[in-house]
Amino acid sequence: MQSDGVEEIFKIGNEAESEQDIFDKDYLAKIDKIKLPNTKIKLLQQLLTKVIGEMRKVNRVKEIDFSKKMQALVERYNQCDENDILRSEVYEEMAEQLTNLIWEVHKEFSAGDELGIEFVEKAFYDILKELCVKYDFKYPEDKLIVLAKAAKDLVDKQAKFPDWNKRDDIKSALKVGLILLLDEFDCPPVERDEVYVEIF
Predict the structure, then answer these.
(1) Torsions phi, psi for 135 (to 5 deg)
(2) What is the DSSP letter of 3?
(3) What pLDDT is recorded for position 101?
(4) Contacts 24+ apart (CB under 8 A), 88-91
(5) Is the pTM of this model over 0.85?
(6) Nearest to 151 by CA among 131, 171, 179
(7) How far is the CA of 5 from the CAs of 18, 28, 43, 87, 172, in angstroms?
(8) Where are the chain's structural domains?
(9) Burial profile 127-140: b = 16 or more Cβ within 10 angstroms, e = fewer
(10) Which of 2, 5, 61, 168 could form an SS bridge with 126, CB 3.0 to 4.6 Å?
(11) Per-residue pLDDT tens for 144-155?
């Protein structure tokens, strides 16, 4: 291992923590040039974990989805037999799949644009959409978008205080507000307590 190789990897790691945009094509191309396959894969895993962590702050549904996809990739990579592990194509394929997943997460940050909703509103939309599938009920798409926007507005109004998540009075008011909002929109159209619990 050459000393400039170690220095370069160290530099990339620091940039990922501070000022470097990990969705920058030049940055990912720089990582792609790393000749040490295990190092490249580990670095891509760390970057992917970081971007999925950013997704988690707002959209828990998509964070879970992307975490499962990453875990499946890692498990498939770890299950390679001894003959495959020596082939460079295995490393290259894994690195490419991790990079593709990073771009998939990046695309999700602007996925609400197609629906005419913001990133945070898309998080509410995804919660409600997932519940439609999980509990097998239909809900009109246009009403789902309007409800997602209204839910975001309600949370913004209730959560305007810095310590709102520690105050029971604000959390209770938010819960009541959400119940009334869901009732106003006839959502969910099924009478099941667990659906409300998941929404909250």
Answers:
(1) -105, 10
(2) H
(3) 92
(4) 88/37, 91/37, 91/38, 91/40, 91/41
(5) no
(6) 179
(7) 20, 16, 14, 22, 55
(8) 3-109, 115-199
(9) bbbbbbeeeeeebe
(10) 61
(11) 999 999 999 998
